[in-house]
Amino acid sequence: MSPDSKTRPDEPSAETPADPTDGCDLRLAVVDEAVHCDGDTCVYWRVLGHVGVEMPAERGCALRYFDVLGAERPQLAHWLLSVKRRVEETEAADRARG
Fold first, then answer.
1. What region, left, alpha or beta, does residue 13 occupy, with left being phi > 0 and alpha being psi -120 to 50 degrees?
2. Which residues contact 8 (CB under 8 A, 6 or more apart)?
3. Cβ atoms of residues 30 and 81 within 8 Å
4. pLDDT (tens digit, 9 = 90+) per residue, 46-78?
5. I want to staple 60 with a disulfide (CB 3.0 to 4.6 A). Which of 14, 18, 56, 71 is the partner?
6. What is the DSSP string of 15-79?
7. Domain limits of the chain?
8. 3-state secondary structure of 7
């Protein structure tokens, strides 16, 4: 079975990639306001390949793919946002060191 045959119905397809202008679901869950999505620069857009999901990063967000956000999971959303921030800070520090 190919990875695409296991896709979720609301998952972006190869023909219709996710649009970062849709907004960041994670930040929306945490701060309850629309914030621009970072797209393929976001750790949650890049992580799918690291967990064995064969999907190009530009196709979408792992949080959407695994459907982990929702009104009933505010603590998870806060934790995931803190993970995103720590990863981004570490990556920025690594780039600054060269």
1. beta
2. 65, 67
3. yes
4. 887 677 776 655 567 888 888 888 767 788 888
5. 18
6. SS---GGG--HHHHHHHSS-----GGGSHHHHGGGGGT----GGG--HHHHTT---TT-HHHHHH
7. 14-97
8. coil
* Selected residue with higher pLDDT from 22 and 93: 93
Residues in the chain: 98
Dihedral sign of CA atoms 79, 52, 35, 22 in order: negative
Tokens of 20: 């970062």
The answer to whether 6 and 53 have CB atoms below 8 angstroms apart is no
Q: Which amino acid would we find at residue 4?
A: D
3-class SS of residue 10: coil
Amino acid at 32: D
Structure-token match 């929306």, residue found = 28
Q: In sequence order, which residues have a C-beta less than 8 Å from that of residue 47 and are 6 or more positions away? A: 62
